[in-house]
Amino acid sequence: MTQLAREVLVSRTHEYLRRYQPRLIGMTGSAYRHLAAAALAAVTTDEVRLEAGIATSLDETVRVILGDRHHAPRGLLSRLMQSRVHELGGAPPEAIALELTPTMPGVMDDIAREFPMHTGLITDIGSGQLDLFDRVELVAHEMLSLLVTLPKDGHAVLNGDDPLVRALESHVRANMVWYGSTPDCQVQLSSVRPLAEYRHRYEVASLIPGVVCEVRIYGKPYELRLPHIIFAHHALAIIGGLATASTLPLNLSRVLHRLSQFRPPAGWGCLTPGVEGSYLIDESAQATPESMCASLRALGKLPVDRRLAILGDLPDLGNMTTHWYREIGTQAGKNAQVVILVGDHMRAAGASAVAAGADVHHFETSAEVSGWLVSYLHAGDVALVSGGADTRLQQAVEKLSASTNA
To answer: Which of 91, 101, 242, 320 would you call most buried, defined as having the most Cβ atoms within 10 angstroms of its Cβ?
Structure first.
């Protein structure tokens, strides 16, 4: 896109924002932003007209705000006409949620300065972007750009359980909404317990039946049933979506009811029936070292006979590569009886997994691993599938799902 075309489209976007004044919600984080964004979209149904999209650059931000659903490159005139068609096509959005996923340093700063948000959410700060930043502290600095431009009457929704997120507090002038497990959080996740412990109150039909959360929202206690959520750290991400929803004019009872029906998007922690009566916990979309280790620890707590960990390469981890693959291997070996590693880099986790007592296998591609697992999985097996997007483990999930092999 030429500089002139970019300036015209940015000007058109500002015109649109001035005319309709939708609330801009920026949502970012290393591992859980998409889960929180999906939860927010689920609970706003029928009450707030919300549009949402992923913004990886200033150009993508313009595209989302103007309601352009076409990702392929197009000319300036076509994009301007599309924005007018969208504008005339129905009631304008009351809020626009932008899932901010920067693809290079400085992108989030460019977006936040050009289009300051009214609400900003940070779900977590981890090592998933060390291919772009040398240190995790620089990842935090990039995400801080979202917060420093928030207005005083805006809201910063922050994960109080993440020490790197906590450290950003002094830079925020907006109203802060903390969520997490500590009592100082306005939206407190007091406890997360397996739904199986509530069999006397709820129907439990699955081998892995989800969780029940005790939540305090501005001091008032609520019970939130999440039958499609397996791990506690996924529940925390959904609470981040709930905390963001609390800044909107929504009926809280309806919000909690809708969350109880929420299913994670494919690749972000959803439970999928697999071949031969097995189950797949699908985290194939975009894992980080921290999220992968958290899920491995949670996998180890599931009351099942055989646990498998199918782990794919992660993006470049810089000078933390050796540390993280060793830690991933250790956690995999401790919490799964069978560890299946996919990709050249993940091979480095093998020695730690063997030392921790696991049966370890290695494959170069997701196609190879799915071909082998079709005849290896059996009834009652639970397999965590986690890795970076480039490993394409979502293809393995598709090939191993019960629906594909019906």
So the answer is: 242
